[in-house]
Amino acid sequence: MLSKSDFLLRNIFYLYPLLKAGNVLEEAKYTKELSNLLFHSGNILFVCHINPDGDAIGSQLALYHYLASKGIYAEMISPNWL
Fold first, then answer.
1. pLDDT at residue 4 is higher than 60
2. 58, 61, 56: which is closest to 75 by C-alpha?
3. What H or E segment, with its residue span, contains residue 46?
4. Cα–chain-centroid distance for residue 3?
5. What is the pLDDT of residues 24-44, one digit of tens each?
6. Which residues have C-beta within 8 Å of that of residue 14, sequence separation ≥ 6?
7. Smaller CB count within 10 Å for the chain: N or C?
8. 10 Å Cβ neighbour count for 23?
9. SS3 74
10. What is each CA distance from 47 to 20, 22, 28, 31, in whole angstroms?
11. Which DSSP state fits 6?
């Protein structure tokens, strides 16, 4: 059985559009919980999709540098050699 935090982290891309369609309170609650998970994690690994485009790489870099500026250890990988 997955914990609530594991469930959210594994399903973030599936849950966000559903919450986006909902009301603002649900989105604020989800954003706060995701923020708590990111800032209380020991290590974070960002994985982009196969054959990443500029948006995928840029998003990884932005999150990586933001978390690094907050003192959070993160790594990035890509299925392709970049």
1. no
2. 61
3. strand 44-47
4. 17
5. 556 677 778 888 888 887 788
6. none
7. N
8. 9
9. strand
10. 23, 27, 25, 20
11. H
Residue whose token pair is 């009301």:
23
Neighbours of 10 (CB within 10 A): 11
66, two tokens = 């933001």
Spans of all domains in the chain: 1-40, 43-82
Closest of 37, 41, 30 to residue 74, by C-alpha: 41
* Helices assigned H by DSSP within the chain: 4-10, 12-21, 24-39, 54-69
Backbone angles phi, psi at 74, to 5 degrees: -145, 150
DSSP symbol at 62 = H
Contact 52, 82 (CB under 8 A): yes
Place of tokens 């540098």: 65
